[in-house]
Amino acid sequence: MVFVDEELFWKVFNNKFLFNKIFQHIESTEIDYDNHKQINVFNKIKFKYLTTFGFLIMEEQYELIKYKLNNNEHISFNDSNSIRIFFNMLQMNINKNKNKYNLNNNNNSNNSNSNNNSNNKNDESELYLDESIKETFKEILIMVLRKRRDEFENCDLVRAAVTQENYEALLILLNDEFKFQVLPDIIMMALQTCKKLSIIKLLLDSPYSIITTDIINHSLHSIFINGNIDNNNNSNNNNNNNKLLEKHEEAIQIVYDNFFSKKNKHNYQYDENKLKKINLQLLLKLKSTELQHNLIDLNIIETPDIKLLELFKFSMDFKSFLIFIKIYYKYFNNNNNDNNNNNNNNKNNNNNKLKKNEIPKLIKDKIDNENEQEGEEDKLKELQKLLVIETKSLSLYIKYLMKWDEPIKELKEFELVYQFCFKTFSLNCLKFLMGNNYCCSSSRGSDSNGTINKTTKIKLSSIFLTNRSLIDILEFLQFAYCNENNYFKIKSLNYEPFHFLNVYNYIVKSGECNNKIYNQLMIILNKISRNSIIKFKPPFIWNSMLPDILNENELTIRNKSTINWIFQSMEMKQINSSLYKIRIEKKIKFKSLELVKFYFKKIKSLGLTTELYFDMNTTELCNNAIKSCNLKELIVFNEMGLPPIKPFDLSFSFNIINKKQRNEEENEKEDEEKEKEKEEEEEEKQLTIENLKEMINYLNQINFRIFTNEMFDRFFTAILKNCPQLIETIKTTKFKTLDILKYLLDSQYYFNEKETINYLLPLLFNIESKVLTDLEVHRYNLLCNNNNGDILYNKKSFEEVYTVIQFWVNQIQKQQQQQQQQQQQQQQQQQQQQHLNKTSVIGCGRGINTIFTRFLNHFYRELLSIKLIRKDQVKQVYNFIYENIPLYLNDNNLYCTMRYFFIGSPKFTKYLMSRVGEITRRSDYAKVCCDQTIPNNLFFLNLETEILDPHIFTMDFIFNSDFDTVLSRLIENLSDYNTNSPNFNLNNNLAYFLHIRRVDLFFKEFNKMKIVQSLENYSNSTTTNTTITSSSSANTSTTTDNIDSQILLSPYYKIKESSTYYQKVKELKDKKDKLKPYQIEETLYVLMVRSLNVNEIQRFIEIHYDHPLIHNKVLKFACGANRFEIVDFLVSNYNVDFSEFWNSFFESPNTDQLFQHLFNNYPSFFNNIFDQSLSSLKEKEFKNLQILLLQLLPYIFRRNEYQYLYTKFQNPSNIKQVLKEILNLDQFDSLVEKMRNEDNTDDDFENYQEMDEDNEEEEEEMDEDGEVEEMYEDGEVEVEVEVEEEEEEEEEEEEEEEEEEEEEEEEEEEEEEEEDGLYNTVKNILNLEDSIKVIKEIAGNRVDNRQLDINIFTVSFSNGYSILCDMILNYFPNKFQITKSLIDQALRKSNIEIIKYFYKNKTIEKHRMLNYVNQQLKNHPTFKYLNWLK
């Protein structure tokens, strides 16, 4: 730990010279980044430029915020997201800590905050909130409200805090110091969406909350439908759903206590008829019966549908049943129509005079009776029985029977009891029916009192097989059908046939069924079958597989007897169909392949179709057979001709301990361990290497045909990992499908103890041609991800890859030695060999050289792809390879070149990644394959060498040359300075230099471009004709006289004579090395104003002295970056124009600070802007009004009701009066709309002139056609006389029709002439000088009375920048006015804060808008409750 002398520190800190030196060093010191994305202009920003509140919160610069607040330094709150980010600050900390700790870690609960507010203790999220962060948040919020409340309150802070669920913020906002008001819609929003119960309680209890009748009426409904309420508790409970219900119920209780309880302290009043109703199902989810009672009494439950009665079960407890009684008589008793159709109803109605919704006295007395000897269960039963008797409801009677299985003697509903009896196998009900002679009664369905009619239709959808035990069901069947006396009684009835098959399925499918129960069932069914009422043939013998078959579960056949039983039981259709579905879904499994073979033979012996009965899943069997090397089962599998084995995960484990050695050791032990010895010997028999070798030999014999290609791949992988020495024993043609490269390219096989790679090498010689082919098509070693620009790296270590490279170098050396020995032998023997045995000697094939070289180069590229590998490590490996096998490493490719750049410097990576789009378009940059000696695509090869020549950009050049030399050469190869070329990338290069903070290279780039342009000009001039040159020189004076208007806007013409740079800029015109104009991207301006100083900005402008508006664009972005020193410099030296871009200032997060600086220093500029914008707006309004009146006045004057206005209008002295009267008409807007919608409207009378011209042209064409016709008639064409007469008659008829049309046209023309006359009259009067003055005056007044978003004040007001608006009004008094339109716009956006600001500082009152604002706010549904209204 470094200790600093505090006294010395303050001496240095207070010494301005040393202090500036230190900061100058910090600014100039370059930070080394490993990630190229971190290299940018914005990675170092001075504190004075960090002003956005939201950004500071996101970056956790809390101390800097407090420092700025205490020292009254600028912080911008204008960013709309700043408040949201700030109020979400605690949640961000919670989420951050949740990622660090396990939610189920009990230690977290011990580290919870002990100082939490009591209302917030149960919030589990508090466990992950740092106490320091919470205190910091509260400190910053209090500081902001005390020091900068007017700026900070640019939105509804209470609404923002509720939206972000920030309880701590609300505690501060609603305390007695700040007294923020909670509007009704915020409370409603909290009730409907808020997660935290503490926030709801705080808002309802706060004295600053406005509780309206509407909130009370909707409160319970809103809190019921709020599905977001948190229920995170400190207690650990697995029943999360119940916890959520408890928390939700607590929230409902809070709302009830606050608004509806008799004990509520505020004495809120409500009208039951206006309460928003809730659904009955929501009420039933509550656990508190007391709360349920209160809500029912509140009459807040909407009338439920009768179907909801099915939700209630008589299995409820006593308290819940009391709720049900209350609900039933209040909502369901009126709808009880299931038994009120009997004659008995009249007697009941006469005897019982109870009100419909009132609980009968008999039931009330039973509820109130507190008999200590009577248990709650007995009381519940009696109460339910009494309710059924009183209501005589069949649906309630069914619920009673389902609960107690006991008929009610007082009710004679025998039909219902009978159906229930046989639906649920109720023996009690059956005996009840027998005891009452129901089965012998001829008038079944009605008693002496006529309780029920025989034809009554009873819906028993809720009755089903309940939790009746199988013994009870068998007992029921025994009593009902095995007793002949009882059976004949039942048989005499006319009832629906009993479905014994359903009963059979129910019993067998049950998990309780066993051999004993099944035998009893078969005895019963055997007796019943004598009566011919059973029409199916169940298996007589029980098998444990029967339930699985009927349930269509997966079957596992363990013995042959089961197979025999299955085929015997197929006579039952249900079993047969279930087996068919199981086979289709391949759910049949066998314990062994011997059973499969037996099953297969059984199918053939019965003459069944193999395809239908042998579709099964044998994967698991084969898995066990292969893992245990069970050769016998594999032979069986092969002989049956089953489909090949599908792939599954496979591994082998061997017991290779010597048995003799183990036996000698075990003989020395005591006799007690002999049994263990036998068990170990049995384990040894499980699997040995010899077993595996035998299995491989057999698989070789059948060419592995029982394996799919994928399964062979898995098998080969398992052998490779567990027993690689057996690879050489595998002989099969399936090697043709094996992806051998995935093993050879996987470095794990180079480091294991078994040295797997050495066993793989001989395989290369057997499949040499396949490996070569695979290498040619294999693509790997990708450089980067084009989607996000990330460089792709592998996760291997340097040592790991270096070891693999050493292995391949050694293999190549061995190969070279063997080849030399072969050459010596050939020279000695002097015999030419006709054929070489490729498997006898390593490296004898021509392809082996290529294969080994490919693997060496692949792993070399893997080495270059290691993240953060150092240059010295690459050099070490590179030198090792070249010292041993110098001719085998191929790094002259684009991939290695790019990797050398990435390793050389992240700055190289930064530049190359900035050119991804360019290089991708030209050379398949991101997906280039560099493992091939000759890439597949020669076209890409040529482009690669044109862009980055690997012979130039070698490892030695990139690693050993200085940075500037390499960078210069790199940019030279990748840059195109031709402004007309699509590859023009000067902007890209300039931006890169600014990112790496090399301003010197930034300006050198312009010199490069000038040189390239001068060479282009020279080449063009040598090919130019001398006559053209002379003519161009003769016209020089003409060209200079007609200077382009854009050039007049360049710095050359805009620099001030008072500027110290004036003379220097003027002299630039005579220089020949001018920079041709080019498109400068906006991003470059942003980078320049962030990274260049004033002198460097001036230098940039001088280079572009003849580029139009270049200084103004720099000024625009300097303003946006708050670089006021650049702004001051440009304004002092150049004639600038803020009017072109002042509206872009509102995109800056520091708008108010920027305008304050500009208003303080350059108020005259903005006075001109205001005047210019106002005058231009009035001019535009004048033109629009003039066109509108020219179209509208003729339309109005033609209408009878406005003829008097036309008479006045003809007198020039009345023009102003007439125009004002027309513009103030109530129907003015509708008249304009009608005029534009009518088809005959003359929207623009000038169109008539165009139409006249078109008509003249048509007449001329017709004349020309007439001349042609005359020439044609004078020719030598002969026409018969009869035809001529007929034509003459037709012509006469046509002439008559034409005369009629002409008369109609004349009438229309007269009307048009009248309209034209009216139009010309209006036009002439409006063109009078006095009329123009009047229209301009009216247009100006319309602009003054209707401020739109066209000036700084209105834009600021619409954005809610209250401080900026106040600043504008102070700097430019009497220029702007708060108008009705601005107030209305703010109200539409709910931007009440800016109205509040100017309301309190009396600006609205000064602008004579107080009454209008009061009226608008008091009529607003939400803002009428504001406490600051007068």
What's the arrangement of secondary structure elements?
Blueprint: H1 6-14, H2 16-28, H3 53-58, H4 62-70, H5 82-87, H6 89-98, H7 106-110, H8 131-147, H9 149-152, H10 157-163, H11 167-173, H12 184-193, H13 197-205, H14 213-225, H15 240-259, H16 280-284, H17 289-297, H18 318-332, H19 344-351, H20 361-368, H21 376-391, H22 394-404, H23 414-424, H24 427-435, H25 470-482, H26 484-491, H27 500-509, H28 515-529, H29 546-550, E1 555-557, H30 560-568, H31 573-584, E2 588-590, H32 593-605, H33 610-613, H34 619-627, H35 631-639, H36 659-667, H37 674-684, H38 689-701, H39 709-722, H40 741-744, H41 756-766, H42 768-777, H43 798-829, H44 846-864, H45 871-884, H46 894-904, H47 906-914, H48 916-923, H49 938-947, H50 955-960, H51 963-974, H52 986-995, H53 999-1022, H54 1026-1034, H55 1036-1041, H56 1051-1054, H57 1062-1067, H58 1082-1091, H59 1094-1103, H60 1110-1120, H61 1124-1133, H62 1151-1161, H63 1163-1197, H64 1203-1209, H65 1215-1223, H66 1228-1237, H67 1246-1273, H68 1281-1326, H69 1329-1345, H70 1352-1359, H71 1362-1371, H72 1380-1388, H73 1392-1400, H74 1403-1406, H75 1410-1418
Helix pairs in contact: 4-8, 10-11, 12-14, 13-15, 14-15, 17-18, 20-21, 21-22, 23-24, 25-26, 25-28, 42-44, 43-44, 43-45, 46-47, 52-53, 52-58, 58-60, 60-61, 62-71, 63-68, 63-69, 65-69, 70-71
Care to describe what's here?
This protein has 1430 residues and is mainly α. It contains 75 helices and 2 strands. Helix 12 (184-193) runs parallel beside helix 14 (213-225). The longest helix has 46 residues, at 1281-1326. The radius of gyration is 49 Å and the shape is extended.
